Amino acid sequence: MSTPPSEEEDLSSLPAWAMRAMQGASSKPHVPERNERLDDSPAWPLLLDAAVVSSFLPSQLAQGLSIRIGRPDAEETVLQLSEPSITATGTEWELRRDARTEVLQLASGSTELTAAVARTATRFADPVSEALRLTLSGQTLVDESMALPRLEALRVAASVLSGVEAVTPPMPLNQLDGLIRKRRMIEQFERVCGKDYERDVVGRDDELERLRAFVGAVSAKSLIDTVTRTFGHLKRVLTGRKPLVLWGTGGVGKTTLLSRFMLEHMNAGDRKYPVAYLDFDRPSISPKDHFGMFAEICQQVSAQFEALEAGLSELRDRALALQSESVAQGPDSGRLLQELVDAFHQQVDTLLDSLESTFEWQRPVLLVLDTFEIVQYDANQVVHIERFLRPFVTADWPRLRLVISGRRRLDGFAGEVDQEELKGIDVHGAATLLGRLAERASKPMSPKVAIELAEMLATRRKGLTLEKLRVHPLRIRMAAGLLTPDCPESGNEIARSIMAELASGETGDAATCMINGILIRRILNHVRDDRVRALADPGLVVRRITPEVIVRVMGPGTPAPNPAIPDFDPSAIDERQAQDIFDAFSREVSLVERDLTALRHRQDVRNEMLPLIRLRDRPQFDLLHRLAFDYFSEKAAEGDPAAGAEAVYHGLWRGESFEALDRLWTVGRVTDARIDPEEFPAGSDAELFLKVRNREGLLPEEVQRLPRGMAVAWATGFCNQFLLSDQPMLAVETIRAALGPDFEHGAKAPALVGVAARLLFRAGRWKDCRALISRALLELPTSRGAGRNARADLVRLAIHIAAKSGDSAAEISEATDYLQNWDAVVCTEATSFLLIGRLQKNVCMTLKELREMQGGDIAQVSDRRWNASRHILRWAILSSPRAERELVAKWVQLSRFLPRVRSHGLRDPQLTTVLKDVLGTRPPDDLDERDRLWRKRSRLLTTAVRESGEFIPCIRYLMVFDHSDWNLLFEHALATALSGGEPGLREYLERLEFLPSRSAGAGEIIFETVRAGRFLELAKALARWKSERRAQFLLPEAKGEEAYPQTISDIAVVLLRWHETLKELALQRGWHA
C-alpha cells in the first residue's frame, strides 16, 4: 500500500509540520516517547478514523469533532505514527501496521470504533477502505461471483488486519488467494464474451457441440448430439484422442468461441474438472520456458481446487526454482520436468478419482493453447512446445484434452491432429446479432428481415445449404454500422436497401470482394464531410494521416474533382484546408483511430477495402503508394521517427529492393513497423522481408534469396534460436545459406561459425564439426572481439569431442591461452576432458599441471553454479584420481535421480552391488521407486561422504551410468537417420522393441528408452547396425577426420567406448602411469 515519495516531488507547498514528517519519511519513522495509552491521547478520534481507512490526508480525519489539544498538534501526532502512501490522487498517509494494530486492539468492540466506521464511509469510498470497514464489522460474505476488484481489496484488508486478534478474516488467506486467481482467469474470458456469455455469443452451436464432445464433460444438448458423441467416444477409445486444432483468419471469432467454451466448462459445477489456458500473446508465456509454463498450469489448476492448493503450490515453487536458462537447457531438464509432471498427474488423478461417482465417465483435464500462430512463426518454437507436452502426452493419461487455437493451420503436433476450421457464425446467429445491434442503434429490424440480410452477407460457395452458410463477424459489424440514429430510414428499410445492392448472384472470391466493397462504400456514404468521403476512397491505401499527408499524398492521389463537391480540388489543398479536413477525419471513428498526434485508418476496414481498390483501379492504387513512399522516405531522412515504418510499408507494396528497404529501416530507426505480413502474398519478397525484420525463422531457400549482408545480419541475430533448434542439420543448412556452402564468409560473423559447429556436434556429425573447427581456427582472427570469443568456443568444443572420440586434444596448445580467462565452470570442463584424454592418449601437457589447474578451477565454482552444471561436476569427480569428499557430497546433494539403467539388462553384477550399498536394500526393478529411495537416503549419504569418505567408490561407479548429456545428441542423430538416411533402421529397432509405436519419432523413442533404463542397450543395438548408406559430408576435409563419428552407428560406438573409459576412471585404474 505504501510507496515513499520520489525525490523529485515538490513538497514546498506543504505545512511546516507536514514538511517535518515528510523529511523523516525516508528513514525509520520516529516514534515519540509516550507514557500514556493511545486511547488516552487527544488525537484518539483521528487515530480511530485513520485505522479504519486505507490512506488519508490529516484534514480528512475526525471532521466535525472537537479536539482537546488543538487540531494541528493532533494531526502531527497522527503523522508521527504514519508513513507516506502514493495513491492515484497524489501523496497521502497511512498508519503504520504496528500503530493500526494497537489502535484497533484498544478499540475492539467499542462504540467509538463503530462510530469511526460510520463517519468514514462517505469520505473514504475507495475499495480497500470499504473492505477494511466491512471486515472490522464482520459483514463480509465472499463467494465466487464477487467482482475481482472487491476480492483484491478484501485480500489487502485481510493482510493489513492480520495482526488484530479480535478480527476474523472472511476466509483463510490461502483460500482467498485461490479465489482471486480463479476470478482473474474468469474475468479475462468475460472481457471477451461478456458475463452473460450464453446469451451474448451466438451462431456457434455446431462448433460448441464439437468442442463439448471432444472434452466430454458438459452434457449434450440433444439426442442426436448424444448419439454422435457416443460413437465419437468409441472411435477415440480405439484410435486414441488426438489434439484438436481450431484455426481461422483474424477476427473470425476464435478467441470469443474459446472464451465462451472455457467459461462454460469452468462453471460446470456438477462435473468440475481442471482447466489450464496458455495464451502465447502474453509476454510471460514463452515456448522455451518449460518450467515457467508448468508453473502457470499449476497456479491455474490450484485456483480451481482448494484440495490441490498445497501440493501444486509446492510443485510450482520447485518449477520456478528450476527456471534459470542453464538448468532449463541442461541435460537433466527432461527428467526434472518429467518428475514434476508425474507428481502433477498423480495429485490430479487422486482428487478426480475421489470426486467421480461409480457410473461416471472419467473427468477430463483440459489444456488450451491460444494464439498459437505466434509459436508457428518459428518451427523451432513448435518443437519446444511438443517437447514440453511430451511428458503429459506420453504418460498414457486418458484424461488429457489438448486444444490448440491460432490463425494458421497446423497439420501435425506430436503426431496426428483433428482439424476444426472456424469460418464465421451461422445465419441464424448472425440474424440474432444483427437484431440486437439494430435495437441498440434505435433502428429495430424484424426477425424476417434480419434473416434475409444475414443470408445475403454470408460467404457464398457453390453447393452450400442455408445451414452451412457462414457470416464473418466483421461483415455484421459493418452492416450494423450503417444503422445510424441520424438516418431517416427505419432499420428494415436500411436492411432492404443493402440487400438490393448485394443481390448480384456472384459466388466465391468475387462475391467476397463485392460484399465487402459495398458495405464499406455505404459506410463512406455516411461520412458527414464530403471532402473526407472523397479522400478516403482511394486514400485508405495510406495508413497514417496528418495534415501534411493530406496535402502531399492523399490529395494528389485522389481522382479529378468530383462535380458533386463544388470548390474542392484534391490536388490543390492548402494547409488551412488540410487541417480542417484532418479535424473532420478525426470525427469519423468508423474509419480512423487516434495515433498520438496523427490518425490511422482502421486496419480492419483497410483489410476489406484494399483488395477492392486494387482490383478497381490498379494505376490509382500504385500512384498512392508511390506518393506515400516518396513522402515518408523524405521525412524518415529528416529524422521523423514515425515515417520510417510508413516508408517501409509503402516500399513493400512498390516492390522496392531488399537493400533499399533495409536502408529505410535502419535510417528510420524502425523498431515496430506494425505491418501485418498476411497483407502480402504468401512467398513474396515483401513477406520475406517482414519475416527477416520480425526475427522469424527462415528456411535455407529463403535465406538464399536475401542479399549477403542482410542474410548474415539476420542469421547472427538468430543465433540463440538456432541453438534451441530440434532440427540441428536444418539449422546448419540455414547458416550455410547465409555464410556460403563452405562457410567462406564466416569471418564476417564468427559467432555463427561457432553456432554451426555446436549444431554439427549435436547432430552427431562430428567429422564435419572437427573439420569446421580446424578451418575456422585457421581463418578467424586471434585479436580481441568476436573473433577471439568464437575461437575460444571452438577450442572448448574441440577438447570436448576429442576426449569423447578418443582422439588427442589437438588444440591443447591454443587452449592454454584461454584457460586463464575462461569461466571457472568452463575451465573445469576443459581440464576434466584433458585429464580424461590423458588416460586415452598422451597430450602436450603434463598430468601434474592439469591436476593443479583443475583443482584451482573447481575451488572457484559456487554451489549455485554446480546446481546448473551437475554434469560437469560429474566429469570433474571422475577425472580426478582422488575424488574430493566435498565434490562428491555436492553431487549427491544436487542429484534428485539415480542414473536410469536396468542393471539386469546390462548383466553388470557390480552395478547391482553398488546400488544395494547406496540404497541400503536390494534395488527394486521399478526405476521410479529407486529414485524415491535415493532421495530418502541422500541426506545420510551426503553426511557419510563428507565425514568419512564412505560410499565414494560406489557413487563414482554410479556416475559412470549417467549419460544424460548424450540424450539430445542421440535424439538428433537418430532423427536424421530415421528421416531417410538409414533405410530399414525403423524396422530393426521395432524388432528389438525400442519403438513405443509404429509412428514414434526420435524424441519419443529416446524419451521412452531413457525412462525404461535401456539407453545403453539402445546404444549397443545401434552400434551393431550396419548402414547401407555412405556417410555424407558438408566439408571435403571432414573425410580425413578418422577418429570422429559421423553416423548414428558411429556415435553409438563412441558412447560405448566413452562408457568404458569412465568405468576405468571410476575404478581408479589407468592413473599409475
Helix/sheet category: mainly alpha
Q: Biggest sheet: strands, sense, closure?
A: 5 strands, parallel
Total count of strands: 12
- Going across the biggest sheet, name each strand in turn: 4-5-6-3-7
**Average of the residue pLDDT scores:** 82
Beta-strand share of residues: under 5%
Low-pLDDT runs of 5+ residues are 2-9, 24-32, 223-240, 1069-1073
Please report the distance between the alpha carbons of the first and last residues.
Answer: 70 Å
Corresponding CATH architecture of the domain at 203-409 and 416-422: 3-Layer(aba) Sandwich
Helix content: 55-70%
Structure write-up:
- With 1073 residues, the chain is mainly α.
- It has 53 helices and 12 strands.
- Helix 7 runs antiparallel to helix 8, helix 8 packs across helix 13 and helix 19 crosses helix 20 (447-457).
- The longest helix is centred in the N-terminal third of the chain and has 23 residues, at 333-355.
- The radius of gyration is 35 Å and the shape is globular.
Any descriptors?
single chain, 1073 residues, mainly alpha, Arc Repressor Mutant, subunit A, Rossmann fold, 5-stranded parallel sheet, 3-stranded antiparallel sheet, 53 helices
Topology (elements, then pairings):
Layout: H1 16-23, H2 44-51, H3 71-80, E1 82-87, E2 90-95, H4 97-107, H5 111-119, H6 127-137, H7 148-160, H8 173-193, H9 197-200, H10 205-215, H11 223-239, E3 244-247, H12 254-266, E4 275-279, H13 290-304, H14 309-321, H15 325-328, H16 333-355, E5 365-370, H17 373-376, H18 379-393, E6 400-406, E7 418-421, E8 425-426, H19 427-440, H20 447-457, E9 470-471, H21 473-481, H22 491-502, H23 508-525, H24 530-539, E10 544-545, H25 547-554, H26 575-586, E11 592-595, E12 598-601, H27 603-616, H28 618-637, H29 643-654, H30 658-667, H31 685-693, H32 700-703, H33 708-717, H34 719-723, H35 728-739, H36 750-762, H37 766-779, H38 786-805, H39 812-819, H40 824-840, H41 847-859, H42 863-868, H43 870-879, H44 885-894, H45 903-906, H46 909-919, H47 927-948, H48 952-959, H49 967-981, H50 985-991, H51 1002-1011, H52 1015-1024, H53 1048-1066
Parallel strand pairs: 3-6, 3-7, 4-5, 5-6
Antiparallel strand pairs: 1-2, 8-9, 10-12, 11-12
Helix pairs in contact: 2-4, 6-7, 7-8, 8-12, 8-13, 13-14, 13-16, 14-16, 19-20, 19-21, 20-22, 21-23, 23-27, 25-26, 25-28, 27-28, 28-29, 29-30, 33-35, 35-36, 36-37, 36-38, 37-38, 38-39, 38-40, 40-41, 40-43, 43-44, 44-47, 46-48, 49-51, 52-53
